[in-house]
Specification:
Length: 189
Amino acid sequence: LREAVKVLEARGRLTVRHGIGVFVGAWRGDELALGFSQVPVSIAELFAMREVLEEPAAAWAATAATAEDLERLRAALDAVGEARQPAVDYDRLAKLDAEFHMLIVEVAKNRFLRQTLDVLQRLLATGMETTLTVPGRLPRSEREHRAIFEAIARGDALAARRAARRHIRGARDAALSRLARAEATSSEV
């Protein structure tokens, strides 16, 4: 993240005022995505950045959520659950899953965080198959999403942060496990 801030500052897209904050100038998310896409990163690094971004987002959402925000989050959560019926459509499910995460960031009310996570979500979507196809991951993900939602609904920032961390680490572990199995299978051939 520091490197990205330095690059964006060098390009005039951010202004860093030490001790005050980082300020966004006029820029387009496509430029950020292009910059990130040109840096080779591992799946583990992408998930580490998800933790950096989504844990505070969940905590901030817990302190900022309005009744309307909670209704929108519940509807997004329900839509993810409904995508399993009658048969699982993994493409639709992955899209709804990403929308649920982005909605949490919207509820957190931090536009720069939203833009940054949007880029990260796109990198993950293009760089790997959804972890929801890993056996057992879908029901676990649903429980983790529910825990995040419930913590936000209670206004419990610490529980929301912890639930987000558990969820992201579970998805990371599923992705890394799938990669390890794929590598083992390809080395056997």
